[in-house]
């Protein structure tokens, strides 16, 4: 069998780019005591106060146990609060606190600048096409995963 070129695999390249972006964003978020994983949940919560924990997990593309762990950390830091749903006491509504909203407003420009910095050598048209391709790959992989269940 011929030698497989892992470095030429777009799956490997996507993973590598993701890890590098995660490391860069982690370094830039460190002074704010938040991880990119926590940021994803906090950001998805903005403008969606009262959303169920289950819906928040879906929007953040996280599983339920991971979302619970992240919300526990965000709650300890005073950035979110959970309230029992009056209609279904087994579910919680999740809310940003004033501190959480303030932090999100501080972090959005940092994330946007990080994205601009990482892609500064790529033209706008190429970035638009790149995002379209990533969305298509994601949709196709999700469909295939559902078919294989």
From TrEMBL:
The keyword Transferase does not apply. InterPro entries: HTH_MarR-typ, WH-like_DNA-bd_sf, WH_DNA-bd_sf. Gene3D superfamilies: Winged helix-like DNA-binding domain superfamily/Winged helix DNA-binding domain. It comes from the Bacteria. Residues 7-139 form the HTH marR-type domain. Keywords: DNA-binding, Transcription, Transcription regulation. Pfam families: MarR. This is Multiple antibiotic resistance protein MarR.
């Amino acid at each position: 069998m011929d030698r497989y070129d892992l470095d030429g695999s777009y799956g490997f390249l996507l993973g590598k780019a993701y890890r590098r972006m995660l490391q860069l964003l982690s370094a830039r978020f460190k002074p704010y005591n938040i991880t990119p994983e926590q940021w994803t949940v906090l950001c998805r919560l903005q403008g969606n106060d009262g959303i169920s924990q289950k819906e928040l997990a879906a929007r953040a593309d996280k599983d339920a146990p991971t979302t619970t762990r992240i919300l526990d950390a965000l709650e300890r830091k005073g950035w979110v609060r959970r309230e029992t749903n009056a209609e279904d006491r087994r579910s919680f509504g999740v809310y940003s606190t004033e501190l959480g909203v303030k932090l999100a407003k501080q972090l959005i420009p940092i994330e946007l600048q990080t994205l601009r910095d990482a892609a500064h050598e790529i033209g706008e048209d190429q970035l638009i096409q790149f995002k379209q391709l990533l969305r298509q790959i994601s949709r196709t992989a999700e469909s295939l995963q559902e078919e294989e269940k």
